[in-house]
Each structure stands twice: as structure tokens, then as C-alpha cells.
UniProtKB/TrEMBL annotation:
Residues 218-249 have a biased composition (Low complexity). This is N-acetylmuramoyl-L-alanine amidase. InterPro entries: DUF3747, MurNAc-LAA_cat, N-acetylmuramoyl_amidase_3. The lineage of its organism: Bacteria, Bacillati, Cyanobacteriota, Cyanophyceae, Leptolyngbyales. GO terms for molecular function: N-acetylmuramoyl-L-alanine amidase activity. Residues 200-264, 414-433 are annotated as: Disordered. Residues 500-609 form the MurNAc-LAA domain. It comes from Leptolyngbya foveolarum.
Length: 615
């Protein structure tokens, strides 16, 4: 039964982010200020951390008891406390309500609706799941606000886990002109400044770091400071402590524990996972708690450990393999330490993007923009390192994104001696090879396998719709001489990172991710086409969107910008097409009709051909 509810409520991180943008964009600021609230008795509503992808991450689910005709949920004690969703045993219309995205819930503090400045997220912290309000629901909005904790669980499980709200927080119902709305507030009646002060946050401006005018007693050098984790983009390796793994970012090593390398250097064994997926990193950290994202020969990877003994590296590899995590061991030679901390003239330049630490929430705010940020020091000043690059333009791109979130990012330029770090080749699956001059398109049918995506009217599964449309698009493009590579060609579950990696490996000209949208099953009136892009995909998105509208009678819900993983992390023009709502009355019927599905596919393929200027 629980798996059925997951299918009903889970649209995965992509669709959840999509609906955040949809709900917020449709709410005018003036109207938000007119909203009121109506309290809900605490025993008639429950906040739940719902597992996604077998507990790899969680999303917020709220169930409310509207009438006493039948119980909507049942609490089960234990550690953690779990919730049995009883509403699935009957037609719960008018008896229960279920909210699973930002169309159904938002943050309210004092008399202010903050749906445009905060977004709700469930995150794991140690042995607890924590419900937090993250600033920046819209780009450029909320960046001056701290992260706020709203509630937490009393343990972790791959189950529906109860979230208990912190003191001062409650759930209430949104009202407009005194009339109750079907929207839940996570609310706090105190004013915003008081809530921020109680959370230990601050909205005061930060002190800028001035790398261009360093103090004579603390010059910027090429040698990473002890608290900086290893960045292997051509840089030298830091000392290895006592034959073990490196300390966590921000933990300075003990000088006496650093062995002095011999004149010929010493061998190290670096255990890496060839991805920078935040989801995979959280899984790696369950085995190696000090794992972090770094760069190896221009690749962003997760470092799980750095060892002097091969046996210890193999031990970590074995543990990760048992968890189904692909690993590599890079064996290299650590050169003797330079006699001077000053970089050699032959050193390779790096560009370190840092944010001065001004409060307890700085790291969380930086991580909201760029995952993998950690605490370190530059010239004795505590900073959050958001990234380190060998190319200046990539550093500047990140600096702009941080600045948009009102974070005073600085770029510190340095250089490091070039160390030889051999790159272990990773096996790659067989994919169609483009002939010379042939265009390559990667099609990405969303979800698959154990991840059905959204489940809509009559059990219609998003993963099936996505694959059917993608197969028709593939056939249309191949008939025009296009080399088409499918991220998945069957009903298999694939994480987001391998989809992106495939597009990079085949040097795709464009990347098109195909999905179906969803909202509550109680809203069959919501139907229509949405197309998303992040940066270079705007013209591609507009071309495909217009082509589908010309080919079908789908409602136009617009072309929008979003930070979906497959859009942000691809280097070629990339778009994500939401071909309709599996929960929509009209769209669900269209998806069940092969001829109507083909019309959507024809619109997508015609748009791609038009963009590529292929007749």
C-alpha cells in the first residue's frame, strides 16, 4: 500500500522543482500579502518525510483529516515514529487532503506569506530527518535570509517518517478574504526578525575578502592551507595522515602526524566515485563519512579516501561495491614537499571561489547554490569554499550565481605545482557512434525501472509515457539521418548523473529530456505543455515548445527556466519537456491514445529538426 502512495505522490526531485516554479510564478506578491490563516488542530494534520528512490532522499508530504468519517492516517510509535497512510484504502474525497508539493504548502511567518522567498525541503542530518525552510524560492529572492529549521524526526527509515514541528511552529490553512483555501502553511506567529534571531541567523552584511591586497604577513600562496581538502586539478597532494584517510574539510591535520616523504616521493591510493551527484555522495558518506566532491584531471568526482596502503583502499572499495556504488582507485606518486611554500614558476593556475563566513547559516546558503561547499581558511579568515577551477570563466560563472543569491563571493587566484595523477579509464557501454559530420541527439526518457515517476489517472505511469514518446522521436530523427542516443531504451532505473555523463561522452549536439507532469489527483482540470531550459537551451526550448503546440491541441503553460540537474550539468543546449499531466483529465486520455502520443512526439522531433536546420 505504501508503495502505491509513493507512486501517487512522488514526481521525484525534477517534478517537485517544476511545481515549485509553477506555483510561485502564478502568485502575485500583492495577493500573497492579503492571505490570512486558519489554525488546524495538531491531531488532525501530520507532516511526513516521504522516501524517494528507496530512501536516497526525502520529500515533504502533509496529510490532513477533513472529516471524521474515516481515519486518514495512523501513527506508529518507535524510533523513528512512522505514519501509516490509511487514506489509500478508500475514496478520500472530502474526508482527507494530501499535499505533496509547493502547490499544497508553503512557509508563513508573522503576517507574511513567504512562498516567494522560502522553499521547504527535507534533509538528512546524522540520524534524523530535518524539515527546513531554504531561502531563494525564486532566483534573486530570499538570498539575504538564513536557513530555518521547522521540525525533525526521531530517527531515519525507508518509510513514511513523522516530522515533529519545533516549538513555535504549527500547521494552518491559508485563507483569502476569510475563505479557507486548500493550501497548508508551515507557520510561525512571531515576526520574521524574532524567528531569525532565535535560529541564530543574521541578515547583517558580510565583510568582504580582499585577495587582491593581502597582508604582508599572510600572503596568498599556491600551497593549500591545512584545512583545505585535496583538489586534484593538476595540484599537489596534501600530506597523508598516519596512513589513514584525509580529515574532513575544515579539520586541520596535526603537524606531527605528517610523515616526511622520501626524496623519491611516496605512493598514494585515491578512492574515487566517478560522479558529483549529491545523491550518490550522501550514499558514499554512509560508508566514508569524510567523502567530498573534488576534481581529478578536469572531472568532478567524489573522493572516498586517500591512503598510503593499498589494502585500506581496497577495503573501502569493497564496502562501496557492496552498496552498488561504482568506484575507482587511482595510484599515483606524491612528490617530495617543496622547500618553499611559494608556487614554482611552472605551476598551474587555479581559481578558488570563496564566501566569507558571516554566520552559522553561510555554508548552508552556499550549498543551496552549489552543493559540496565546505569550510576552510584563507589568510586566517574563515571562508566557505564553493569551488576551485582551472578555468577562470567557470569560477566567474559560480561567482555570479552566488552573487545573485546575495552571497559576497570572491575569487582567489593561485598556482600549484603540477603533479602526475594517472586517470583510470572507466568502462563505457556501447552507444551508437556518429559518422563524421553526423549530428548527435541524446534523448532522455525520464524515470524507469523501480522509479515510475508520477502515477496519474487510472494508474497511468509517467515512465511508460516518457519511453513511448521518446521511441517515436528517435524513429523520426533517425529517418532524417540524425544519430540518436537514448539515455535508456528499456524499463530500467538510471540515476541523473549517468544520463548527463552519457551526453558528454558521446559529445551530443543537444540533450532533450522527456517527462510527463503531475499534480494532485484531485485537480484533473490542470493540463498542458511546459518546456524548461537553464542557460544555452532557451532557443531550443522555444522551438520545440512551439512545434508541439502547432502539432497538438495541448494547452500552453509556457517556456520556463529551472535548475534541473540534467539542464545545469550538461555542456550542450539542453531542455526538459513536460508533455502533459498524467493527473489531468484531458492529458491522461491523450497519453493513452497511441495516435495522440505520436502527435506529441512528432512535434518534439520537428522542433529538434528545425533547431538543427535539418530538412
Amino acid at each position: 500500500m505504501k508503495s502505491v502512495l509513493r507512486r501517487l505522490t512522488t514526481t521525484t526531485a525534477l517534478a517537485a522543482t517544476l511545481l515549485v516554479g509553477s506555483a510561485i510564478a502564478s502568485t502575485a506578491q500583492a495577493l500573497a500579502q492579503d492571505y490570512g490563516q486558519q489554525s488546524i488542530a495538531s491531531d488532525r494534520v501530520v507532516a511526513i518525510a516521504e522516501p524517494v528512490s528507496n530512501g536516497r532522499f526525502y520529500k515533504l508530504l502533509v496529510i490532513e483529516q477533513l472529516s471524521d468519517q474515516r481515519a486518514c492516517f495512523e501513527e506508529k510509535g518507535g524510533s523513528p515514529t512512522t505514519i501509516e497512510p490509511l487514506l489509500l484504502n478508500f475514496d478520500f474525497s472530502g474526508i482527507c487532503s494530501r499535499s505533496s508539493d509547493s502547490n499544497g504548502y508553503s512557509v508563513r511567518i508573522g503576517n507574511e506569506d513567504l512562498s516567494r522567498r522560502y522553499r521547504l525541503q527535507v534533509t538528512r542530518r546524522g540520524d534524523n530527518l530535518v524539515l527546513v525552510a531554504l531561502p531563494g524560492a525564486l532566483p534573486g529572492r530570499g538570498g539575504d535570509l538564513p536557513v530555518l529549521e521547522i521540525g525533525r524526526s526521531n530517527g531515519v527509515a525507508n518509510d513514511f517518517v513523522k516530522l515533529t514541528l519545533d516549538p513555535g511552529w504549527k500547521m494552518s490553512r491559508r485563507t483569502l478574504s476569510g475563505n479557507a483555501q486548500g493550501h497548508i502553511y508551515l507557520s510561525n506567529d512571531q515576526d520574521l526578525q524574532t524567528v531569525i534571531a532565535q535560529a541564530g541567523g543574521s541578515r547583517q552584511p558580510t565583510t568582504a575578502l580582499s585577495p587582491s591586497t593581502p597582508s604582508p604577513s599572510a600572503p596568498l600562496t599556491s600551497t593549500p592551507l591545512p584545512s583545505t581538502p585535496p583538489i586534484l586539478t593538476g595540484g599537489s597532494l596534501p600530506p597523508i595522515l598516519g596512513g589513514g584517510s584525509l580529515p574532513r574539510p575544515g579539520a586541520a591535520p596535526t603537524p606531527s602526524a605528517v610523515p616526511t616523504p622520501s626524496a623519491g616521493g611516496s605512493t598514494y591510493y585515491q578512492v574515487i566515485v566517478p560522479t558529483d551527484s549529491a545523491i550518490v555522495r550522501s550514499r558514499v558518506q554512509q560508508v566514508a563519512s569524510d567523502a567530498f566532491i573534488t576534481n581529478v584531471n578536469g572531472r568532478r568526482v567524489i573522493q572516498a579516501g586517500l591512503f598510503q596502503e593499498r589494502s585500506r583502499a581496497d577495503e573501502v572499495v569493497s564496502k562501496l561495491s557492496r552498496q552498488g556504488i561504482e568506484t575507482q582507485v587511482i595510484e599515483g606518486q606524491r612528490a617530495s614537499a617543496p622547500s618553499s611554500p611559494t608556487a614554482s614558476s611552472t605551476g598551474q593556475k587555479f581559481y578558488q571561489v570563496v564566501v566569507p563566513e558571516s554566520g552559522s547559516d553561510t555554508r548552508a546558503r552556499v550549498n543551496a547554490v552549489e552543493s559540496g561547499a565546505f569550510r576552510t581558511q584563507v589568510n586566517g579568515q574563515s571562508v566557505i569554499q564553493a569551488g576551485r577551477f582551472s578555468e577562470r570563466d567557470r569560477a566567474e560563472q559560480l561567482q555570479r550565481r552566488l552573487s545573485d543569491a546575495r552571497l559576497p563571493a570572491q575569487i582567489v587566484e593561485g598556482s600549484a605545482p603540477v603533479a602526475s595523477v594517472p586517470r583510470s579509464p572507466s568502462p563505457s557501454p556501447s552507444v551508437p557512434q556518429a559518422r563524421q559530420g553526423q549530428l548527435t541527439v541524446v534523448l532522455d526518457p525520464g524515470h524507469g525501472g523501480g522509479d515510475p515517476g508520477a502515477v496519474g489517472v487510472g494508474g497511468l505511469r509517467e515512465k511508460d509515457v516518457n519511453l513511448a514518446i521518446s521511441e517515436k522521436v528517435k524513429a523520426n530523427l533517425e529517418a532524417k539521418g540524425i544519430n540518436v542516443v537514448m539515455a535508456r531504451a528499456s524499463d530500467v532505473e538510471i540515476d541523473l548523473d549517468p544520463r548527463v555523463a552519457l551526453a558528454e561522452r558521446v559529445n551530443a549536439d543537444i540533450f532533450v529530456s522527456i517527462h510527463a507532469n503531475a499534480i494532485s489527483l484531485s485537480r484533473p482540470d490542470i493540463n498542458g505543455l511546459e518546456t524548461y531550459y537553464y542557460s544555452s537551451g532557451l532557443r531550443l526550448a522555444q522551438t520545440i515548445h512551439n512545434s508541439v503546440l502547432q502539432q497538438t491541441d495541448l494547452l500552453d503553460r509556457g517556456v520556463r527556466r529551472a535548475r534541473f540537474y540534467v539542464l545545469v550539468n550538461t555542456s550542450m543546449p539542453a531542455v526538459l519537456v513536460e508533455t502533459g499531466f498524467v493527473t489531468g483529465r484531458d492529458d491522461a486520455a491523450r497519453f493513452r491514445n497511441p495516435a495522440a502520443r505520436d502527435e506529441i512526439a512528432n512535434g518534439i522531433s520537428n522542433g529538434i529538426l528545425q533547431y538543427l536546420n535539418v530538412q
